[in-house]
Amino acid sequence: MVVPYATPRARALGLELRAAREKRKLGVRELARLLGIAPGFLSNWERGVRLPKLEDVGAVLAHCRVIGEERGRIVEMAKGAQESNWLDTGTTGAYLEWEKTATTLFAWEPLRVHDLLQTSSYSRVVLRSPGVENVERLVAARLARREVFERGRLTECVIVLGESALRKRVGGREVMADQLRYLRSVLEYDHIDLRIMPIDTDHHPGLSGAFSILDFADLPTIVYEELSKESAHSSSAVRVRHYKSAAKSIEDLSLCGDRARELIDGILDELAG
């Protein structure tokens, strides 16, 4: 199935329009009637598979009573939404939605434990920073993301961690030992293919940084990179092919099963020593 748009930015715009409609407690048919369009048009806008004109976006926001800075932010998002590459300086809300609806996920995390595999104590250390409030709420939300394994659409999940992520003593020995024991238990799961990239591996594509690849049942693949203060998203066919090739190399070079278990046990022994 080829969709005309469904770029990351178009799909994020659709999520914003849907959220505005739901906050106003309007159904698809009701809002479509107010706009004078067929419900299918509105549904396609919210899915990101069709792009509304700027005046259409303005009309949706007017009926949903979105004003001020929020309105300006969403209208700005609509500009250039047809472009396949998107650098976002906002929240991770769009990524979290994609994570819940993806059918396959590949993630490469060289320097820290992936969000989906963090224990509460590890997450608490990672999320705590000056100015951040409600850390416990953030920790609970991160742990709740594991529901994608039970309730989501994921049929395949490959997560590769760099050995450096396992050796860095985030939160101290006890926190890290607890995290490592959890990762060891994950190796027994059927629904997660956890792999470890040895620290002494020669040059490989993963040295450029962390990234994730999300595939969907009927929408284009998205490549996601979390940067320092922003995130990069792309559905460009060229970039998707490049990152899928990199993912294959990373997967082939990493340790799984008994070899990954031996590596984790060795680091646990060092922590206990």
Report the biggest beta sheet as strand number plus sense, adding barrel if it closes. 7 strands, mixed
Any idea how many domains?
Answer: 2
How far the N terminus sits from the C terminus, by CA atoms, comes to 56 Å
Main CATH class of the largest domain: Alpha Beta
Integer average pLDDT = 93
CA radius of gyration is 21 Å
CATH topology of the largest domain: Endonuclease, Chain A
CATH architectural category of the largest domain: 2-Layer Sandwich
Number of separate helices: 12
Percent of sequence in beta strands? 5-15%
Helical content (DSSP H or I, runs of 4+): 40-55%
Numbering strands along the chain, what is their spatial order in the largest sheet?
Answer: 1-7-6-5-2-3-4
**Helix-strand sequence:** HHHHHEHEHHEHHEEEEHH
Number of strands: 7
* Oligomerization state: single chain
SS-based structural class? alpha/beta
Summary, kept brief:
With 273 residues, the chain is of the alpha/beta class. The protein contains twelve helices and seven strands.
